[in-house]
């Protein structure tokens, strides 16, 4: 695990906190001296409904505590309640298992499976094209695969067919010349477009982070914020 943490922009966090109604808290302790208890109390004061996840069950802050994520999910499904945020108070090394469990319970498919399927389909198309000596290999479909979503290439390669030589020429168009918008607002919109509103946002508390957990969340289309106290972020964002 490296030291790089994953954070959402202030704009996205503001939108999440403004629209959220129900927050599930994994690792909420009934101990009034624990940070999780203070955070949960704050969220209740701000009008959020909380769902405690505590292995021993019982009741915390007047709310029924569920022994597991699955038990809480089933209860919410029966009541028709949607979970907007899952706030996690667990050790950093446990985060990949927790996030994987969330993805499994919510029935989320990994985008990596779709990417592999698309690559296999494209490979078959290329084989078919190469077998036909009179065909021109079409590489346009490769644009649909995002091999490095976090690192946009500095240049965009465009293929032009030379009508005289029938050879493919490559010309480079710089990002500044292209019409792609890489502004912060455009990137926020792009992130939100990939996020299914029915899926919860994963929020990992201050001092906790795990690169593998962040990767799992992204692959399953989940917004992910880590090493971040939801109480402090609320106070910071809405005090402006």
What are the key terms here?
about 240 residues; alpha/beta; five-stranded parallel sheet; about 15% strand
Question: Your description of this structure?
Answer:
Strand 8 (201-204), helix 7 (211-219) and strand 9 (224-225) form a beta-alpha-beta unit. Helix 1 packs across helix 8 and helix 4 (95-105) packs parallel to helix 7 (211-219). The strands form 3 sheets. Strands 2-1-5-8-9 form a 5-stranded parallel β-sheet. A two-stranded antiparallel ribbon has the order 3-4. A two-stranded antiparallel sheet has the order 6-7. Helix content is 38%, strand content 16%. The chain is globular and about 35 Å long. It has 8 helices and 9 strands. With 240 residues, it is of the alpha/beta class. The longest helix is centred in the middle third of the chain and has 21 residues, at 111-131. It has helices at residues 10-19, 35-45, 69-79, 95-105, 111-131, 184-193, 211-219, 230-238; strands spanning 22-26, 49-53, 59-60, 63-64, 85-88, 155-161, 168-174, 201-204, 224-225. The chain has a domain at 10-109 and 195-239: Rossmann fold (3-Layer(aba) Sandwich), CATH 3.40.50.
Q: Uncertain spans, ≥5 residues at pLDDT below 50?
A: 112-120, 129-180, 187-196
Distance between the termini: 34 Å
Largest sheet: 5 strands, parallel
Widest sheet: strand order? 2-1-5-8-9
Strand content: 15-25%
| Class by SSE composition | alpha/beta
